[in-house]
């Protein structure tokens, strides 16, 4: 016999599942074998659609609660919303490819999944979630973020998935914990803070420009740019009324190809890692805005 309380729980679960189905389209994997998800180049592979429906944007607080996912042990870092100024970062071409390896849904990386990727005729070293992990640690651990000048971070993956990371998100220090968090995000579409209702990370609709302020200057970073600058001088000459959006590649090789960028600059004659480049930008912004 089903008690009224158990019946209520079952009804709530069915309502939650129905809400998620209405807001998202996805193809359920037929099996949990060794198929890479989200990569249309693999014939016969299992493709997981990750385009966010507009109904997620129009939901009220109660409806939003059905799509929130709490990941235990993710605290929030301090945030000071009353600070003036605004800085955004966009991490392009991030490698966050998820797959069922055995029975686990995991973010692929060359240390753990080299043999799996070679069986798929893929180069293991093209799958580098450690790059975006290091980039996020540099941004979120900066004084710029602690002072409340950071307004948001966006991650655009190789598969075209767009992720928003709120400034009060504390990124896990280890790569394994970070990959577990991102795998959870790709499955559940959002992650909320522990004990809170606010979303720390969530999948959002492309393009990224619709989530940026109108009065923003979008600055791309590339070592191949003919416009070499001293970053301190460049920031000193920038319009103080504009929000600054820095677009940095989070991939192992290649360069970003973002049509929405207003200006491409180079801050070093040598190729810098994404983490080093972002650290240089954050330090320059802290000096420019007199953050001590």
UniProtKB/TrEMBL annotation:
<keyword id="KW-0539">Nucleus</keyword>
<feature type="region of interest" description="Disordered">
    <location>
        <begin position="1"/>
        <end position="42"/>
    </location>
</feature>
<dbReference type="InterPro" id="IPR029028">
    <property type="entry name" value="Alpha/beta_knot_MTases"/>
</dbReference>
<comment type="similarity">
    <text>Belongs to the class IV-like SAM-binding methyltransferase superfamily. RNA methyltransferase NEP1 family.</text>
</comment>
<dbReference type="Pfam" id="PF03587">
    <property type="entry name" value="EMG1"/>
</dbReference>
<protein>
    <submittedName>
        <fullName>Uncharacterized protein LOC107471582 isoform X1</fullName>
    </submittedName>
</protein>
<keyword id="KW-0489">Methyltransferase</keyword>
<keyword id="KW-0808">Transferase</keyword>
<dbReference type="GO" id="GO:0070037">
    <property type="term" value="F:rRNA (pseudouridine) methyltransferase activity"/>
</dbReference>
<dbReference type="GO" id="GO:0019843">
    <property type="term" value="F:rRNA binding"/>
</dbReference>
<feature type="compositionally biased region" description="Basic and acidic residues">
    <location>
        <begin position="1"/>
        <end position="17"/>
    </location>
</feature>
<dbReference type="GO" id="GO:0070475">
    <property type="term" value="P:rRNA base methylation"/>
</dbReference>
<keyword id="KW-0694">RNA-binding</keyword>
<keyword id="KW-0698">rRNA processing</keyword>
<dbReference type="GO" id="GO:0032040">
    <property type="term" value="C:small-subunit processome"/>
</dbReference>
<keyword id="KW-0690">Ribosome biogenesis</keyword>
<keyword id="KW-0699">rRNA-binding</keyword>
<keyword id="KW-0949">S-adenosyl-L-methionine</keyword>
<dbReference type="InterPro" id="IPR029026">
    <property type="entry name" value="tRNA_m1G_MTases_N"/>
</dbReference>
<dbReference type="InterPro" id="IPR005304">
    <property type="entry name" value="Rbsml_bgen_MeTrfase_EMG1/NEP1"/>
</dbReference>
């Amino acid at each position: 016999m089903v008690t009224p309380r158990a019946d209520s729980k079952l009804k709530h679960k069915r309502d939650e599942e129905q809400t998620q189905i209405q807001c998202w389209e996805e193809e359920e994997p037929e099996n949990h074998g060794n198929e890479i998800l989200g990569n249309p180049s693999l014939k016969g592979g299992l493709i997981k659609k990750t385009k966010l429906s507009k109904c997620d944007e129009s939901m009220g607080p109660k409806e939003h609660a059905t799509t929130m996912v709490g990941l235990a042990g993710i605290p929030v870092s301090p945030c000071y919303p009353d600070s003036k100024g605004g800085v955004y970062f966009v991490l392009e071409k991030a490698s966050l490819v998820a797959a069922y390896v055995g029975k686990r849904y995991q973010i692929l990386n060359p240390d753990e999944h080299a043999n799996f990727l070679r069986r798929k005729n893929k180069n293991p070293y093209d799958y580098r979630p450690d790059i975006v992990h290091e980039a996020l640690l540099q941004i979120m651990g900066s004084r710029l973020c602690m002072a409340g000048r950071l307004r948001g971070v966006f991650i655009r993956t190789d598969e075209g998935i767009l992720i928003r990371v709120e400034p009060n998100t504390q990124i896990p220090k280890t790569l394994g914990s970070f990959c577990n968090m991102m795998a959870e995000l790709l499955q559940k579409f959002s992650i909320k803070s522990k004990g809170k209702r606010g979303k720390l990370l969530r999948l959002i609709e492309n393009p990224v420009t619709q989530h940026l302020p109108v009065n923003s200057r979008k600055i791309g970073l590339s070592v191949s740019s003919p416009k070499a600058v001293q970053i301190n001088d460049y920031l000193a000459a920038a319009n103080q009324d504009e929000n600054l959006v820095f677009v940095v590649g989070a991939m192992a090789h290649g360069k970003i190809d973002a049509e929405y960028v207003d200006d491409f600059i180079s801050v070093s004659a040598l190729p810098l890692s994404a983490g080093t480049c972002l650290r240089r930008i954050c330090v320059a912004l802290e000096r420019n805005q007199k953050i001590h």
